[in-house]
Design brief:
The chain has 3 helices and no strands. By secondary structure, the protein is mostly helical. The radius of gyration is 33 Å and the shape is elongated.
Length: 117
Amino acid sequence: MEINMVCVRGHDLDGPPKEAFKAAQKAKEGVEYVEQMLNKQVFPRMFDLEVASKSGVASVYEKAYSHEHLEKTLRIEAALDARIDKQMARFVNLKEYKRIRKETSNPVLETVPIAPA
């Protein structure tokens, strides 16, 4: 689709708003970039993966993203996340304990004036 000045709704060639035209051009460029990335990178890899799965020969790509490998990796990552969460909770509890202990160990005593005012 070609974008020209007449494409902008409600305006003619006499006084088109340049901002709207530039925005339309920029949007068109963005769409073209996404289409180019899909055609050059995503679709060829999908086709290769489909061919490899049909032929029965596992490629490096297919091995790396196999269900067994992903499941094992996710299990390990979940265990690590749990350990990190546990350690962070201990750290926060320790910091809070130190803060509360400091507040209670040094209470501010109110003093009564000795001499009458």
